[in-house]
Specification:
This protein is α+β, with helices and mostly antiparallel strands. Helix content is about 40%, strand content about 15%. Bound molecules: zinc ion. Zinc ion binds near residues 77, 96, 98, 166 and 167.
Length: about 240
């Protein structure tokens, strides 16, 4: 199997996992940077992630232009992905989703911060991007590169950002890492809301976040990936091609 074929199979699996784990529903999407063309990325046509098949995958230039649409309709919000790849050369995968537990943290002054060791990858504190600041009243969708770039400025050098009244964006050095962070971002938000109802929270300290993030290995992420593949009824591919 070629490097590209391998990654496309991984991308189908990523779509199914994000659906099975409740990160995406009918909406939301995941992409990978093309392994041989860093000025391009690959993502599904506009389709619910749990339904995505290999033939749905399309290649785009970073400005969101399809290479060969062949009648397929792309996601409206693909500019989130292109802007992240353009602004962050080290980013290899992007997830955009509306996972339910993160939404309250985008519409209140409560900061989303890691409180569970498995969630250190979300960063010290998740920034919130508000479309209104630069674009006024909109339908909140990221429908051009200007909006995508503004969102990526809010993301800064981090791995996650919330989008007010809408959802979030997650980036990773690999497809598996971006999926891993997305699943644990949703879990952290869920747990933080529960803990807030009980009283004051002891969050991870900045030092703990750095130590955990620095020691989270590919092995940890691959172990979760194998489990999620089982749950999503997808084969586990070796990282060796
Ligand atoms: Zn969206």
């Amino acid at each position: 199997m070629s490097e590209v074929d391998h990654l496309l199979e991984e991308l189908v699996t990523a779509n199914r996992i994000l659906a099975r784990e409740g990160v995406v529903d009918a909406f939301g999407h995941v992409s990978v940077r093309h392994p041989q063309r860093p000025d391009r990325y690959v993502m599904s046509r506009a389709r619910a992630p749990d339904c995505v098949e290999r033939e749905d995958l399309m290649e785009f230039t970073l400005d969101g232009t399809p290479i060969d649409a062949a009648g397929r309709k792309p996601y409206l919000e693909r500019y989130i992905h292109g802007a992240a790849y353009e602004g962050r050369p080290e980013v290899m995968s992007v997830v955009h989703n509306h996972s339910p537990s993160v939404i309250p943290f985008g519409v209140t002054s409560v900061k989303l911060r890691p409180l569970l060791h498995m969630c250190a990858g979300i960063g010290h504190q998740v920034p919130v991007w508000d479309t209104r600041a630069a674009f006024g009243d909109t339908d909140l969708l990221v429908v051009n590169m200007d909006m995508g770039r503004d969102l990526v400025r809010a993301l800064g050098g981090g791995s996650t950002a919330l989008m007010r009244g809408h959802g979030c964006v997650v980036v990773g050095h690999s497809l598996r890492e971006a999926v891993h962070t997305s699943v644990y971002l949703e879990l952290n938000a869920n747990l933080q809301a529960k803990a807030m109802a009980m009283g004051d929270i002891t969050f991870l300290t900045p030092g703990e976040v750095d130590m955990i993030a620095g020691s989270t290995s590919g092995f940890t992420i691959d172990r979760a990936w194998e489990y999620w593949c089982r749950r999503a009824n997808r084969p586990v591919q070796s990282l060796e091609i």
